[in-house]
Design goal:
elongated, 9 helices, mainly alpha, about 170 residues
Length: about 170
Amino acid sequence: AFFPLSFFFNATATTEIYTLSLHDALPILARRSWEDYYRTCERIVAVFGRQRLVTDLAADDFSTLRQDFAETRGSWALAGEISRTRSLFKYGYEAGLFDQPIRYGPTFKRPSARKFRAERAAKGPCMFEAAEVRKLLDEAGQPMKAMILLAVNCGLGNADRKSVVGGKGVE
């Protein structure tokens, strides 16, 4: 069967394969993950076009898509975009939306481990000196002061907030 991308992606650029509403999908996907998939779908449609047939996609199309991702993404975000794209098309094949698996070609791969290491080394260490922390604490009000102290003393960040307050999260 031949399916245009407009069939695979509906008018709001969410995938037909993820037909659950955000409310229904939250037990399966975290809100952030759902939003990442949504943005990836929008980007795929923007690059390939809404009327493009999924069965007409070839390796050079995915090379173009990777170049588009790489223009605005670092290595880690690029790897995530590629993984999400592959999982969307894999699920479409497994769900029977098209008859053959997609051939991505040799260039539609995650960046190499060497590229990740080089990017991390170029950023340098991410540390605050004691004087910088004191200045932040002096200027912060509550609850920001508590968050700074948790980050400095316990190594907790934004993703750890839910575990700190019994799974309910802090908004």
